[in-house]
Amino acid sequence: MYTAHDLALVLARFQFAFTVGVHIVFPAFSIGLAAYLAVLEGLWLKTDRQVFLDLYRYWIKAFSIVFGMGVVSGLVMSYEFGTNWAVFSRKAGPITGVLLSYEVMTAFFLEAGFLGVMLFGMNRVGRGLHFAATCCVSVGTLISMTWILASNSWMQTPRGYTIDPATGRFLPADWLAIIFNPSFPFRLVHMGLAAFLSVAFVVGATGAWHMLRARREGRGASEPVRVMFSMAMWMAALVAPVQILAGDAHGLNTLKYQPVKIAAMEGDWETEGRAAELLFGIPNMKTERTDYAVRIPLLGSLILTHSLDGKVPGMKDFPRDQRPPSPVIFFSFRIMVALGVLMMLVGFWSLWLRRAGALFTTPVFHRVILCMAPAGFLALLCGWVTTEVGRQPWTVYGLLRTSDSVSPIVLSSMAVTITAFVVVYVIVFGSGLGILVRLLGHAPQEGEPTTSPAHASDILATHTHPAVIDPSSGKGA
Fold first, then answer.
1. Residues 174, 224: contact at Cβ < 8 Å?
2. Long-range pairs for 56-59: beta carbons < 8 A, 24 or more residues apart
3. Which pairs with CB-CB distance under 8 Å and at least 24 residues apart come from 356-362?
4. Is residue 281 part of a domain?
5. Domain assignment present for 139
6. E strand or H helix at 476, and its extent?
7. Are 203 and 231 in contact (CB under 8 A)?
């Protein structure tokens, strides 16, 4: 029988999962897109080719929208720490709070300081200074990711702390050990590659859409469209295999430091050597077995330990109250892996078409890329679910339970706030994504107009009302 406190805890977890799930997409988009913009501007400065400047001006408009939505969605979570997770904030705050404050003092100030120059300074400062501003914003997004992952990774594999016996608070003892905890390097690389790969498929899908439309209209795609599609496919072909290898290294690290998470991901109940890999099944937490299992002999040990004789842990080795919900992460992990493999295969397909000289003339491939537009972000979200749900029932792994981290919240209050969050998020971020889709629905042009304060407001008006004509270009904006 669930108590009101239990239900309030579930709603608090759902609210945080919902807000983080919405938020995480925008920083990942910003990280990948900022790096892409830096590359485009660098290529323009090096080659003086107008096409790179056109693409820079095209994608910086999308970046401004995505960056804004990321800032807005991120502010909410800082308040949730105080309202819903006050016990966690009080106990872990001396470590996690400091790491997050470093993110504000370094990354956010760096981004905020140069964002205005990046967005509106193209015709106001020199080329070198503007490129430096773009690079600073890109570096700022990477620094932001670094500090946030350092904090979250410490919650996964805590090191470098002491516990105050009087208050139960985690106090820093070794900041290097805290920051460079065992899972941090693997998660940093994995997340960074995920951001680049996600943006590559959005850029590729945008190019594919415009090539398909040009084909329907009986004309060839413009040079900016072909260039951005080609760059996106190079990124997919190069990064997707590296991401698979990074994920494998991350899995080995997780097996060492969080073996119960691996057991739940794999749906394994008994510790076995020469273990099979479960391709499909439905883990049953009550009967302690995986129903409808489809297994491949020996593959589990080979993948998880790189040895046919390696031992794979089972969930029965751990107390019932320390096991994460296996059905959730069993499927989220497999969806993530399936999408990762699919992105890698699509990248290899692009290499074959490129060699055959058919990269821009194969509509079937373009339709596939168009369908793959959200693949990177879906894989990223599934990876986040796998990581965070797999840490349960802990907020600080093995040390502080989620049930002991929540504020003394009221069930009715949580129900009201969750409803309000969902409604507001759908309206605000749904509108933002609608504007973004309208923006990307117009192909980049040769001589793409620059972004200025006046033009930035024109973007919103134009793409809210597609019939508006941009007088500076003499065509539909």
1. no
2. 57/122, 57/444, 57/448, 57/449, 57/450, 57/451, 58/224, 58/444, 58/448, 59/33, 59/203, 59/228
3. 359/229, 359/230, 359/233, 360/211, 360/221, 360/226, 360/229, 360/230
4. no
5. yes
6. strand 475-476
7. yes
**CA dist., res. 54 & res. 145, Å (int):** 28
Q: What percent of the chain has pLDDT over 90?
A: 50
What pLDDT, on a 0 to 100 scale, did the predictor assign at position 465?
A: 34
Please give the pLDDT value at position 464.
Answer: 36
Domain containing 227 equals: 4-256+328-476
In 147-304, the DSSP E strands lie at 161-163, 170-172, 272-273, 277-284, 289-296
| Residue 353 near residue 361, CB atoms below 8 Å | no
Higher-pLDDT residue of 354 and 468 is 354
d(CA 259, CA 314): 8
**Backbone angles phi and psi of 278, in degrees to 5:** -85, 110
Using CA atoms, how far apart are residues 96 and 392, in angstroms rounded to an integer?
Answer: 18
Q: What span, in angstroms and rounded, lies between the C-alpha atoms of 156 and 263?
A: 16
Give CA–CA dist 467/477, Å, rounded.
8
User: pLDDT tens-digit profile of 217-253?
Assistant: 888 788 889 999 999 999 999 999 999 999 999 999 9
3-class SS shares of the chain: helix, strand, coil, % to 5: 70, 5, 20
What pLDDT was estimated at residue 447? 67
Query: pTM of the entire structure?
Result: 0.87
Query: Does position 152 have pLDDT exceeding 50, yes or no?
Result: yes
For the chain, what is the domain count? 1
Model confidence at 32, pLDDT cuts 50, 70, 90, reads very high
- Domain annotation covers residue 323: no
Give the tens place of pLDDT for each residue, 64-117. 898 888 888 888 887 888 888 889 999 998 999 899 888 888 888 888 888 888
Residue 89 forms part of a structural domain? yes
Q: Which residues of 370-394 are buried (b: 16+ CB within 10 A; e: fewer)?
A: bebbbbbbbbbbbbbbbbbbbbbeb
| Sequence-distant (≥ 6) Cβ neighbours of residue 167 within 8 angstroms | 91
